[in-house]
Write a structure and sequence with these properties.
Elements: E1 2-5, E2 11-14, H1 16-20, H2 23-33, H3 39-47, H4 50-59, E3 61-62, E4 65-66, H5 68-83
Antiparallel strand pairs: 1-2, 3-4
Helix pairs in contact: 2-3
Length: 91
């Protein structure tokens, strides 16, 4: 597990090894990067357990709603910070 603290202070442990070898995760990243918002919940479901997902929603709660922009920023930050702590997949 890799511990990540985002710039806004959200702390989470993510299984980097699983993410490096998950085709579903890659599909979700491609979808999200191409503007398909449905990719974001899929990414979250793969990256985070239910408790962490709930905490992230609470962390990104603004004016009575969970902000998609804030969630997107947090997910990008988690992935960015994980990039420096994990090794590339080797075939």
């Amino acid at each position: 597990m890799t511990k990540v603290v985002t710039d806004s202070g959200f702390e989470v442990e993510v299984d980097a090894e699983t993410l490096q070898d998950s085709m579903e995760f890659l599909d979700a990243i491609i979808a999200a990067d191409s503007g398909d918002l449905k990719g974001i919940p899929t990414l979250m479901s793969i990256m985070l357990n239910q408790d962490d997902k709930k905490r992230l929603y609470e962390h990104c709660h603004v004016d009575g709603r969970t902000s998609i922009r804030k969630i997107n920023t947090e997910i990008k930050d988690i992935l960015s910070k994980m990039g420096g702590q994990s090794e590339p997949v080797k075939n």
